[in-house]
Amino acid sequence: MTEEKGEYKLYYWRACEKFWGRAIGPVLTLDHAEANFTVDEPSKAPTGVGFAFPQITLPSGKSMAQTPAMLIVLGDIFGLSGKTEDEKMYCKQMIMDVNDICSEAMGGKWKEKPERADKWLTLLEAKLKKTKFLVCDTPTVADFHAVFAFEWVNKKYSPAATQSGEDSTKAKKFENVRRWWDDMNKLAAVKKMRTSGVPMIP
């Protein structure tokens, strides 16, 4: 897909005035890409698109829902899915991997089965020994979605860390994961979101 010129319209609860939540990945992607975009209430979204929010309407007028699917499309539009075919393929997998990490962290599964946290973070650690970011040496939509995932990791396993941008206690066992988290929090789009006055997650 080629970049679409015009306004991108994102729809999420309270128009992201109370928290960024699942809109973190799409908003960071749009901001990093310097796209023209707005965020509005779900009541303003086109009907019949999907049940879950956020939803997005592209400049072409086409709309879609579900954060991972939106990120795949936005990554293709803005060239934020890697450069090679292998990177683009792995980016799609990594979006779903961090989505699973988020679900398990939110649901408390890591407390019930801490070995799952070790397995997930070991997977990321191995990848981050080879590249600066999760897919390649430049940030991709998978990294931006991972900000959302690690906000929940931090909230569940190191409550004081979330808004400060520090890494979770668990992640401190993994040198490259911690380095990646530091690098992510140095990105202009992430800094802007953190200093917006709006909580990252509820």
From TrEMBL:
Positions of the GST C-terminal domain: 60-202
Protein origin, superkingdom: Eukaryota
TM spans (from-to): none
UniProt cross-references to CDD domains, sorted A to Z: GST_C_family (cd00299)
Protein name, per record: GST C-terminal domain-containing protein
Organism: Lotharella oceanica
